[in-house]
Amino acid sequence: MRGFRFALVRAARSRSRAELHTVQRHRPSDLAQRFSHSASAPARPSFGIAFDIDGVILRGRSPIGGTPRAIRRLYSEEGTLKIPFLFLTNGGGVPEHRRALELSQLLGVNISPKQVVHGHSPYRELVKRFEDDLIVAVGKGEPAVVMSEYGFRLGKLGKQTVTCLRKCTHHMMFIQSELKECLLSAILLIGEEIYRYSVTSCLLVDFLGLKKGINLLCILQLMILNTRINDHPLKYTSYGKPNPFVFKNAANILEKLVLSMYPNSQTSMEVKDCQFSTIYMVGDNPKVDINGAMKAGHPWSSVLTRTGVFRGKDNDPQFPADAVVDTVEDAINYILEKECVQ
Fold it and tell me: What CATH number does the domain located at 47-119+241-338 have?
């Protein structure tokens, strides 16, 4: 009997040593797998957000309602960006880095210049196109500073020397003397569309010698007048909302923003199409913000606030949004709840 028990003990010990050897053989890879899982970067968000500024985030220079508190929910406790978002506005007149600094101070978070897209931001891509041409930059704010930061040679537009810098009402513009004798390639307008009527009127009256007080039809009449100066008339192109191009450009910027937030999630070579399942456009203007998101199509979804242009009780009948809320704080609550983000 003792011999039988001894044989059982020896067999048990042999099994224990074999099992221990098996565990030790697999343990390093198991530990590495657990370490790799714990050390891996968090999954990148499947959605992004674009906010209009005036009437949504700010009224003048004051944040609307609980906007700062709401925006902080898009950041981690350490202050790093957690949810990719940007500001998409037709306004501007100042460089993007200056607007980013202003927003950072007003909202109490760190806003990167990459997160600010003005209506004139696409002009940066036109520098080479008009490198040797005469152009006029006109608008509200500081067009000279904006255009020079984009790379335009203000002071020497094309090969012509700008001999006059004037103030026209609240707009600044660069012109060249004897403008009528030069071939004008482009007039780049800076600022909200509401200002373009007075900007164009001012340009025509002050620099093309028209009689003051004449009834002008904004850009259309400028194009007609320009045919008297150039062989080829100017063609009007809008680079602001609701142009679908603006939303496609914003989606690309959000993608690059995500790659900087999560550099290990995928390489830039792998980004071919929009990787977001949804991009939310939060705005107050149905004709501009909501209409633009509708024209852009997937993956854009629209959220309409009642803090600016739109004040209706129900949805806008002409350009209905996917959701209607009172404030941007409600919009962020709606988005995070829909995306199951705490």
Answer: 3.40.50.1000
